[in-house]
Write a structure and sequence with these properties.
The protein is globular, with a radius of gyration of 41 Å. The C terminus is likely disordered. It starts with a helix and ends in a 199-residue tail after the last helix. The protein contains 29 helices and no strands. By secondary structure, the protein is an all-alpha fold.
Length: 755
């Protein structure tokens, strides 16, 4: 309870006590109302305003937090069954959270970098993952394809996402598709999509839908159908859209039908008290073209007399019309008026495009110092605020200065951009790099390329290949290695063609150590080596007498070998290891060990005993001969275990054998071994030996069972596939990789690696 309420309550109590005492003593014959300095309130608030404020607060709270009885559901009431015939609704913005938001941002980053193919591949692959794209992600990549005039790709993506992948499109999806067909000259297809929306979609067409279709009909010479579509839009209850009327007015003016255009303009003014001033801009442009400047300026003044608060796109269109027809005084006056009306957050009268229009006009006239002043200009009217320039505005003025060779001024603007906590985009870095290369400032271009890669922005393949080719041609292949290594450490990885350009340049400059390091990075990151690059590198290293070095590196990248590690790692042991003890004697024909391990093994049980065997190569492929008996402790094998063995029993004996060389899978007929005893691990730490071949009968083995399939250590760590568990299907590759192999029958045993 507040302090002032406690004081008021104590005063009321004291007054009541004094009145009771006076009545008791009889000093007052007739009770009179007590006079008090503090009025007695009959309500719980100090004023009516406070009570009204409390009522508003309670209403707001009820809107935000509805009462519990409104949320409580009757547990006995039957849950309504979903209607199977109800149309599916598109995603709302609440679906764009978590992993789906991360996917959307990643696709948008690829779009901003200009790598539409990677953006499309990322969005399409996500359809088959747990994180399916939202309709907003699909619309983003389809609209990007349309903006780059890739109409067929945009249509194909719409079909893939919304027809094949069962994602529900929204009205924006249909609008982009209609616009694509209309710009491609297929207006009838756009009309069919419009009718499909009316018949099947759970929403109505938007004004943007009618804008696209009317523009397409007018461009194809079917303006009468465009007028009919306007009437249909109005009959369906849609409001009069200024841009739809503007399309029709522009079409009639181009047909020299000024009367019909004015009629439509008057109809728009009757239906809308406030309309878009771009319609006046259309009339002004046509009047100026016909040499009727007075009529154009009359239309412009009539618009200003209405004192509309026009949005920046409308004002920018008017500025462009005035500058186009050499009305510079009026254009600069209108620009100053826009700056004076800029009072964010109440009203935003300018944007970065406004400044870009005026800056481009100054640059066209060669007034570069004035362009900088315009770029930083603010309004003079009290209450107006300066515009917070964004990256797009800096990008435009930097590009204009770089085109005219004013790199010093452009660098100063780039410094201002960085100091304002704005992040440069891909276009700014590309602009500087291209300008430096044109001005033969290769070191500055290389430095800017380093900053480009360090910023974390996406470097698309076409741009990186062109820039690296310029560096190589100008003798900077060695200096460009550091940039390429940085790119390789980030995702996505550079293209193999990018490595090929730099590696060939290094070989021509006889920088073979740097070339070997780049090849090693390609091996580590599993970047494919093209046949042309392989032949070129082998030939170049062969001329230097280092062919064995590069051939060994290339061989290590083949399937079946571990990932290549740099020569600074632990030494690789080559050749057969030293073995102590007497020579081995085995019953039956001689055995040649070192071939690839068997895969298919079936048949009678095997019994094996004897000292531990450490074989210098993979298990045998084909064994035949009389039975062999072997005694001793368990056998340690480094290669994959047999799968199916067949043949008569085998008994083996002899001294230890060492086995550790990785081999390729093979097939061997026989019977599955009978294994008894505790499990035995083999393969984690074994030395590489020379391969050999062994022929003999399948062995009957007695003793502890053998577990194989673990990765081998052959001087360098290798990454092995996880063992296949019994009873579980083999893990499939992603759909864009090769098809997974079919599992053979019977299933493999535990601990075996997949074929």
């Amino acid at each position: 309870m507040s302090l002032h309420r406690l004081i008021l309550r104590s005063l009321r109590r004291s007054s009541s006590v004094s009145a009771a005492a006076a009545s008791t003593n009889g000093t007052l014959i007739q009770q009179r109302p007590q006079l008090s300095l503090v009025p007695i309130r009959t309500f719980a608030f100090s004023s009516a305003e406070e009570a009204a404020a409390e009522r508003r607060r309670r209403k707001r709270r009820l809107r935000i937090e509805p009462p519990l009885h409104a949320l409580r559901r009757d547990p006995n009431a039957p849950r309504p069954k979903p209607d199977p015939n109800a149309p599916r609704l598109p995603d709302s913005t609440s679906a764009l959270v978590g992993p789906r938001l991360n996917l959307h941002n990643r696709v948008q980053s690829f779009i901003r970098a200009g790598d539409l193919d990677l953006a499309s591949a990322t969005a399409r692959q996500s359809v088959f993952s747990n994180t399916r794209p939202t309709v907003f992600t699909c619309n983003a990549i389809i609209a990007a394809m349309y903006r780059n005039k890739r109409f067929d790709d945009a249509i194909a993506l719409f079909h893939f996402f919304f027809n094949q992948s069962n994602i529900v499109p929204n009205v924006v999806s249909y609008n982009v598709l209609i616009n694509t067909h209309c710009d491609a000259g297929r207006v009838d297809v756009g009309l069919d999509i419009y009718r499909h929306i009316l018949a099947n979609a759970p929403f109505s067409p938007s004004p943007v839908t009618y804008r696209h279709i009317t523009k397409g009909l007018i461009d194809s010479g079917r303006i009468d159908e465009a007028v009919d579509l306007l009437r249909e839009m109005l009959n369906k209850g849609h409001g009069a859209d200024s841009l739809v009327y503007n399309n029709l007015i522009s079409g009639f003016l181009n047909l020299e039908n000024e009367g019909k255009a004015i009629e439509l303009f008057d109809e728009l003014k009757e239906r809308c008290l406030v309309y878009d001033g771009v319609v006046n801009g259309t009339f002004m442009d046509w009047y100026f073209t016909k040499g009727r400047g007075k009529d154009a300026m009359d239309s412009y003044k009539s618009l200003l007399d209405r004192q509309f608060r026009m949005t920046p796109p409308t004002c920018n269109a008017l500025l462009e019309v005035l500058l186009k027809h050499d009305k510079k005084v009026e254009a600069w006056a209108f620009f100053d008026q826009m700056l004076d009306n800029h009072t964010p957050p109440n009203f935003q009268a300018v944007n970065s495009d406004t400044f870009s229009v005026m800056v481009n006009e100054c640059v066209k006239l060669g007034k570069f110092s004035e362009a900088i002043e315009v770029f930083k200009k603010v309004g003079t009217k009290p209450g107006s605020k300066p515009f917070a320039m964004d990256v797009a505005g800096y990008n435009n003025i930097i590009a204009r200065f770089c085109e005219n060779g004013l790199l010093t001024e452009a660098e100063q603007l780039f410094g201002e951009l960085s100091n304002k906590s704005l992040t440069p985009d891909v276009n700014i870095y590309r602009t500087f790099i291209d300008a430096y290369l044109r001005m033969e400032r290769v070191d500055d271009a290389l430095h800017m390329f380093h900053r480009f890669v360090d910023s974390g922005l996406r470097v698309i393949v076409s741009f990186s290949n062109r820039v690296f080719d310029e560096f190589v041609n100008k003798g900077k292949a060695g200096e460009s290695v550091a940039v390429l290594i940085k790119m390789g450490e980030k995702d996505p990885k550079p293209d193999p063609m990018t490595y090929e350009i730099v590696i060939k340049g290094l070989c021509k400059e006889r920088l073979f150590d740097a070339c070997r390091n780049l090849m090693g990075q390609m091996m580590r990151f599993n970047i494919g080596v093209t046949p042309s690059l392989r032949d070129f590198v082998v030939e170049a290293f062969g001329k230097e007498g280092r062919s064995e070095e590069i051939e060994g590196m290339l061989e290590a990248s083949r399937p079946g070998f571990g990932a290549y590690r740099s020569p600074s790692g632990p030494p690789r042991t080559a050749g057969p290891p030293q073995m102590g003890g007497p020579p081995q004697r085995m019953g039956g024909p001689p055995q040649h060990m070192g071939g690839p391990p068997p895969q298919h093994m079936s048949g009678p049980p095997q019994h094996m005993s004897g000292p531990p065997q450490h074989m210098g190569g993979p298990p045998p492929q084909h064994m035949s001969g009389p039975p062999q008996h072997m005694s001793g402790p368990p056998q340690h094998m480094g290669g994959p275990p047999p799968q199916h063995m067949s043949g008569p029993p085998q008994h083996m004996s002899g001294p230890p054998q060492h086995m550790g060389e990785p081999g390729y899978p093979s097939h061997m007929a026989g019977h599955p071994p009978h294994m008894a005893g505790p499990p035995q691990m083999a393969g984690p730490h074994q030395m590489a030996g020379q391969p050999s071949h062994m022929a003999g009968h399948p062995r009957h083995m007695a003793g502890p069972p053998q577990m194989a399939g673990h990765p081998q250590m052959t001087g360098h760590p290798q990454v092995a596939e996880p063992p296949q568990m019994p009873g579980y299907p083999q893990m499939e590759e992603p759909f864009w990789m090769e098809q997974p192999p079919q599992m053979e029958e019977p299933p493999r045993m535990a601990g075996q690696a997949s074929a």
